[in-house]
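[job 4417] fold queue: 2 targets
>>> target A
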Amino acid sequence: MTKTLEVVKAYYRAWTTKNFAAAGEHLAPTLVVEVPVNDYPTVASFLQALSGFGSMTKRIELLAEFANDAEAMLLYDMDVEGLGTIRIAEHFTVEDGKISRLRQIHDTHAIRAAGFVKT
């Protein structure tokens, strides 16, 4: 396992066990977040959203992982209370042992319908 994948999986393990403070320890202070809904200009704003949405998860199943020197990808299914199962692909860039960029792709229909999108 690469160092990059170790960092990403430590972050994943932390938030999927609802230890959001520990998840934050793996994020660079200059984190750039690219997600299909909403905007998170700071680590604090992203962690607030992660905590709120992550607290609603009932089950998460990691389906695949991939990494090279500075990038990693995770594919997982997340069963969310009131939304059902959402398949998510996340692409991470890791620099100096911290996640500096997080790109997430998922179907936004259920999330938009539930009102989780800021307008």
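>>> target B
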Amino acid sequence: MMKGVVAIKLALLLHEYADSEVNLQNLQTLLGLAAVIGHIFPIWADFRGGKGVATLFGLVLGISPWTAISCVAIFALVLYLTRFVSLSSILASIAFPVFILVIFNVDNPAYRVFAIAVALMVLLTHQKNIGRLLRGDESKVPILKSRDRRKQRRKDASSNHQD
């Protein structure tokens, strides 16, 4: 996450290129995107890196904090309901352009295109996860185990009553 935040803060050192709010946001987006691409395709790891979601989050947090907080809310809700980190990341990334284009109505065309590109990039980097989700093979995060045990006990009790 810090990669994204630090990358966009570098724009403050290049103030001669950021003579307006829109230009600053465009420069921040470009620098942050470079950090994300470097995370996903690192040279020193044979161009095989992570999925870039945390770095993207740092970028968005630094540029538009309310959008980032809104995406975190989507992520947390989906994670609570499903316990799938990948599904949470995918749905939060799909919500990102919705927040930018519709809810917060950001008027910077480059940032609007960036928001759509983020959703597409997360979908591309999560192809294997999407396949596992569709097959029912995706791993769940072991949170709320007590809730799951209660559900299982209720399920077991109801099946015992039917026997």
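[job 4417] complete. Note on B: The radius of gyration is 19 Å.
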